[in-house]
Specification:
Blueprint lengths: L1 E5 L4 H12 L3 E6 L18 E4 L5 H7 L5 E4 L13 H21 L5 E7 L7 E4 L3 E3 L6 H5 L14 E4 L12 H20 L2 E7 L1 E3 L12 H10 L5 E2 L6 E2 L1 E3 H13 L6 E5 L5 E2 H10 L9 E2 L16 H7 L7 H8 L10
Parallel strand pairs: 1-2, 1-4, 2-3, 4-5, 5-9, 9-14, 10-13, 11-16
Antiparallel strand pairs: 6-7, 6-8, 12-15
Amino acid sequence: MRILVTGGLGFIGSHIVDDLVEQGHDVVCLDSLSPAAHAVEPDYGNPGAEYHRVSLSQMDEVVDLCRDLDAVCHQASRVGLGVNFGDVTAYVDDNCSGTAVLFRALYDVGFSGRLVQASSMVVYGEGGYVCAAHGSTRPGPRSVASLREGLFEPGCPHCGSALESTVVLESQALDPRNVYAATKVHQEHLGQAFAAATGSDVVSLRYHNVYGPRMPRDTPYAGVASIVRSACEAGRRPRVFEDGGQRRDFVHVADVARANCLALMAAESIGGSYNIASGSPITISQMADAVCAGVPGHPMTPIVTGEYRLGDVRHIVASPTLARDTFGFVAQIAPETGLREFATAPMRHPIN
């Protein structure tokens, strides 16, 4: 198969390229090497793939790369919570407009094959919760006053009582709570519209907290595992926000790449959205402890700071069962093992 991978030199995209090349596919990569993500050109490009330094804003060049494709894997994206709302235009340009250009280019060349795109758990907002009195419920955003007082757990919106965190299914209503989340929801909706217009089989994979080799470091857009890893490498004790009890699902990049390949190669139509997670959620403190335990010599211990970031959610874990049942994805790397190894994994050059 001839497959276009956007963001093919990125963290996740480069692992997908490696897997596809190993499987014998003809892989074409598009990557702008944005300075927001790359300090230098990465040295891990796969010699078996074809690379083009092209931005998704360059319509003519994108159209040329979209000809004669069997499938597309769309990974190019600006990720993370960002610095502040001033990032809004950059996120919309990269994630919304860039995706629109790709879909328009594919439409212009008559593409109607399989398209797998990167989405995110952030589309859900808070995860699932159950109130003993009111059953399944969705708490609203946590107030600044509560966060300042160290009251991190959301209460029932009906009675204010404590809630039990539960797993999220793909059927849960979307509730984006920051700019990045809003752009990922829009990207999924654009995919649905593109599928309806072309007959393409569009698959959106809702990644949970991805970590592993080639992860970006020392950038405000890096994930929390990267921030902990960078602190350890610099000899600093990692700082854990809130009380460290936030629950997340950390899924290794090798598993995420495999999920993309399984979705690309599925024999039947599988259009829709899927959670891509390890299925073994842990707390942020447990994640930080696992990374610190992998530091050679004398492991560090994290500092729980009580600080918070507006836009963060308390708990978000999901069931990967639908992906397993539909195209056979089951994570193979347990977070406890993968995170310890991540402490010494090679990372991308820092952004200065």
